[in-house]
Design brief:
CATH topology of the largest domain in chain A: TIM Barrel
Low-confidence stretches of chain A: none
Number of helices of chain A: 15
CATH superfamily of the largest domain in chain A: Ribulose bisphosphate carboxylase, large subunit, C-terminal domain
Oligomer: homodimer
Number of strands of chain A: 12
Structural class of chain A: alpha/beta
Shape of chain A: elongated
Distance between the termini of chain A: 51 Å
Mean pLDDT of chain A: 92
Largest sheet of chain A: 4 strands, antiparallel
Strand order of the largest sheet of chain A: 2-3-1-4
Chain lengths: 369, 369
């Protein structure tokens, strides 16, 4: 029987870890006492197995559990259920890695565009990419369209809705999307440089589908989604139904500590089709460490069977003056996303400030070639 | 401008809490520095406000934040985004309560059946209700159908799939559901007592819909779902599209600590249509406290505008010998769910053991009237 491996960090003392690991293996497979299993086939083929237990710090262990692939039914939602359904309810357990055998991996097409597709769309084969977020929510459609035009005129590659912008009365989706698309078109006609507007798609599956059609009809090529808010299976369905979109994946509702950020945002979002996972950068207003961010970017880009590499997008409390430092750390296959820090410039000064951002990225790239 | 109130437990020292609370209010509304907001309407109407900060233990504060209702767009996914999108990524922040004004609450039909509907279906107006889980996964359709028949013959009210049972090769959904329905029908014909089989619906939204149709066509009235695995918005769509089902809501993938269990499983699941939230009971194999479980049951049943009360279903490491203690604690508007503990009885002994469970509940009820 083929197995996948799920790896957990478990808090425990040395005396308790073997029992806790075994209990987790049972919880994540048959979920009943072994004495209640009377069929040897189920004991041998279905019960998950503890493959290894290694120390990982004080009162902390790294535990690898082998789970029968058959139990996943080769389905997205059930795979998540098998690796982190019930044990997400345990204290002191974090899911940190999954390793899928080839025939299970093969059910996931992953990003349809990935790094290469995004670079082709933007006609930017090598340099780091730029993104700006339109904020704050509460702005009218006209105000948003004007901001969108300004960012595109400044040379920003992707101008995205803030993830708080949905379908509110002050900027309804059906009006905002064509208006921002028109603003981008006007700007790119002036600059001769490609730029894309990424509207935020959010809603129940039925609403999502309606909005995706509106966006597609308006000529949108890049969208923003928050897979954990939509539900991972709903995200999967959306990508399958609208593979022509480039998906920027926002971490909202992703929790801080229950699934390792590198695994959730780097690996799992990518697996389900995220072309460019957005994540909170170190040294900003979130508590992620530099190493965690580096691991996340590496997970997004790592060779992985036929799954295309995804483009890491650090964000969250980014500042213009950090552009060279961040590019030195993340390298050129990166899109920097700056939101509020650009907006400190008022009115006409916004264009100049966004140009500084673009120029800082270009000069970093020029110095490297 | 109308506002909802979201309440958080935030870890902080006394000197830092005011700043942290204000930062959270900004994160959950405009997500940019206040200096970047040049429109007074947005500052007044859209920026969230800290309403109160109260000590809640050592280095811990209870912070109420008022969020403009308009920002939710009156939508399920966006409501979750506004109350716990980005700040789910913060360390030491737990969402513990939401208070929705009437016009926002009105967009949520809540449970379509609730406690009264479940009692009517089971013809059990007053007594506590019983449920048993079929485990372990890996059993064949014939084995599951036999177990289903046994539990129903014993008088168990609702016989549910283990939440690990999906659509695996050893018990395909399309074969399992009619087989278990037939087994239940046979048993209820023999006992004259109503009983229902609850299959587990899991999948992407498209798969869910297909399976819901299969279940409905087979005459299923009660289903098991795990809303956090499906995604809360996808769960909402499912309930709206198939309101005839009674929804048992499983906590899988719900995390332990980021949203208070009473709020997530008691309040939010109910709000989105769960008729009977399943939760992990105190003193079992999960770390929930007795008080947390009591708060969860209270949240599920509390009067709440036009939203029907939902039936609390404690589960997870339950034991037969605890029936009287648990009913004393939870009271009669409760469904006890016992899984693995019943299955310790092998073969023919399972019927007797399930009967003991039913008899224990009945004798508790008889002693009270």
């Amino acid at each position: 029987m083929e197995r996948l491996t799920a790896t957990y960090l478990i808090g425990s003392d040395a005396a308790g870890i073997a029992g806790r690991a075994q209990a987790l293996a049972i919880e994540q497979s048959v979920e009943c006492p072994l004495e209640a299993i009377h069929d040897p086939r189920i004991r041998d083929d279905i019960v998950a197995r503890v493959a290894s237990i290694e120390p990982a710090g004080p009162e902390r262990y790294r535990v690898a559990v082998e789970i029968a692939v058959e139990t996943t039914g080769y389905e997205t939602a059930q795979l998540i259920n098998m690796v982190f359904g019930n044990c997400s309810l345990w204290e002191n357990v974090q899911l940190v890695d999954i390793d899928l055998p080839p025939d299970l991996l093969a059910i996931f097409p992953g990003p349809r565009h990935g790094i290469a597709g995004i670079r082709a769309l933007l006609d930017a084969p090598r340099r780091p990419l730029t993104s700006a977020a339109m904020k704050p929510q509460g702005m009218t459609v006209d105000q948003l369209a004007a901001m969108c035009r300004t960012f595109a005129l400044a040379g920003v590659d992707i101008v995205k809705d803030d993830h708080g912008i949905a379908d509110q009365v002050y900027s309804p989706f059906a009006q905002r999307v064509p208006a921002c698309q028109a603003a981008i078109a006007e700007a790119t006609a002036a600059t001769g440089k490609p730029a894309f507007y990424a509207p935020h798609l959010i809603g129940t599956p039925g609403v999502l589908r309606e909005r995706a059609h509106v966006a597609r009809d308006a000529g949108v090529r890049v969208v923003l989604v928050a897979p954990m808010l939509l539900g991972l299976p709903a995200f999967r369905d959306l990508v399958d139904e609208f593979p022509e979109f480039v998906y920027l994946a926002h971490p909202a509702f992703g929790g801080a500590a229950r699934i390792a950020p590198a695994l959730l945002f780097g690996t799992i979002f990518r697996l389900l089709g995220a072309d460019a996972p957005i994540f909170v950068n170190y040294g900003g207003r979130f508590a992620y460490s530099r190493d965690e961010c580096g691991a996340l970017a590496a997970a997004a880009r790592a060779p992985w069977g036929a799954v295309r590499p995804a483009l890491p997008v650090p964000a969250g409390g980014m500042r213009l003056d950090r552009v060279p430092e961040l590019l030195d750390y993340y390298g050129p296959d990166t899109m920097l996303l700056i939101g509020g820090n650009l907006l400190l410039a008022q009115g006409g000064a916004l264009l100049a400030r966004a140009r500084e951002f673009v120029a800082a990225v270009e000069s970093w790239a020029a110095a490297r070639t």
